[in-house]
């Protein structure tokens, strides 16, 4: 299992670097594909993946990314409103086949997975996004790795015994501090290549630490949904890691936070 997880992790990192290096259309449609798979995984938990609400979610996801790709941001909110009206219409017209919680799950799938993951593309798409996108990985995967190391070395107090018994308070603190340090180091590297931000190590260190908090929440939220519905893994797409939601759960929460934090730092 360890070697399978390591090998697939290496392949995943290589694919991520290649996708984000190219940027543009490739990043957009790769994130769209990941969003579709993530929506499918989440909708499957509620047995909606092949039903009308699920199909509406997939089609809206594709439309949402198409609008982003065409840079028609003014249409994004109308799309979300129309999507809500569509799934409510399905609920009303097929009342005997759906429960109110199905409507909520269908909207959650689109907003939680597709909209939040789209911020990876949106961050990559802004000026110097090829550098800035690294912050998302620092706050998600970097935080996760350093939290694991800190937990193994110093962990004594359980952070969430029911949802994630292996996570500790010490690991949480270590992950946040570690992400802050990595962010500061990245800020030093960034300022050496892009002369636009004063005190970049300080700002990006702060962004790294702050961004690590939603990464933890995203991880635990995904675990909570699985535990509530007696699901071990969301999928088997990534050997040793599970599905898209199992691997990208922290990034789903981190990407939008980092996007807006970066805009604030850059004054954009």
Structure description:
With 268 residues, the chain is mainly alpha-helical. 77% of the residues lie in helices and 3% in strands. The protein is built from ten helices and two strands, in the order H-H-H-H-H-H-H-E-E-H-H-H. The chain has helices at 2-22, 24-45, 52-69, 76-93, 100-125, 129-132, 134-154, 169-193, 200-228, 244-266, and strands at 158-160, 164-168. It has a two-stranded antiparallel sheet with strand order 1-2. The protein starts with a helix and ends with a helix. The model has no long low-confidence stretch (mean pLDDT 85).
Topology:
Blueprint: H1 2-22, H2 24-45, H3 52-69, H4 76-93, H5 100-125, H6 129-132, H7 134-154, E1 158-160, E2 164-168, H8 169-193, H9 200-228, H10 244-266
Antiparallel strand pairs: 1-2
Radius of gyration (CA) equals: 19 Å
Tell me the overall shape.
globular
Mean residue pLDDT: 85
Helix-strand category:
mainly alpha
Task: Say how many strands there are.
Answer: 2
SSE run:
HHHHHHHEEHHH
Q: Largest sheet at a glance?
A: 2 strands, antiparallel
Give the % helix.
over 70%
**Range of strand content:** under 5%
Low-pLDDT runs of 5+ residues are none
If helices are DSSP runs of H or I spanning 4 or more residues, what is the number of helices?
10
With strands numbered from the N-terminus, the spatial order across the biggest sheet is 1-2
The N- to C-terminal Cα distance equals 45 Å
């Amino acid at each position: 299992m360890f070697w399978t997880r390591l090998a697939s992790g290496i392949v995943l990192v290589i694919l991520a670097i290649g996708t984000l290096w190219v940027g543009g259309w490739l990043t957009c449609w790769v994130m769209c594909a990941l969003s579709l798979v993530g929506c499918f995984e989440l909708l499957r938990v509620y047995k909606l993946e092949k039903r009308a609400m699920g199909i509406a979610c997939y089609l809206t996801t594709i439309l949402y990314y198409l609008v982003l790709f065409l840079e028609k941001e003014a249409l994004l909110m109308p799309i979300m409103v129309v999507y809500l009206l569509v799934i409510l219409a399905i609920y009303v017209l097929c009342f005997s086949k759906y429960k109110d919680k199905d409507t909520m799950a269908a909207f959650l799938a689109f907003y939680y997975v597709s909209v939040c993951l789209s911020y990876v593309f949106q961050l990559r798409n802004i000026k110097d996004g090829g550098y800035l996108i690294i912050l998302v990985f620092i706050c998600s995967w970097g935080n996760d790795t350093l939290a694991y190391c800190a937990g193994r070395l110093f962990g004594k107090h359980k952070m969430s015994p029911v949802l994630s018994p292996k996570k500790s308070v010490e690991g949480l603190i270590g992950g946040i501090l570690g992400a802050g340090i990595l962010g500061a180091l990245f800020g030093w590297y960034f300022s050496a290549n892009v002369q636009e931000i004063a005190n970049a190590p300080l700002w990006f260190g702060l962004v790294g630490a702050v961004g690590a908090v939603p990464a933890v929440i995203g991880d635990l939220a995904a675990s909570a949904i699985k535990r509530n519905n007696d699901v071990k893994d969301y999928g088997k797409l990534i050997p040793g890691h599970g599905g898209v939601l199992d691997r990208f759960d922290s990034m789903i929460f981190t990407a939008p936070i980092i996007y807006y934090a970066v805009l604030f730092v850059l004054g954009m």
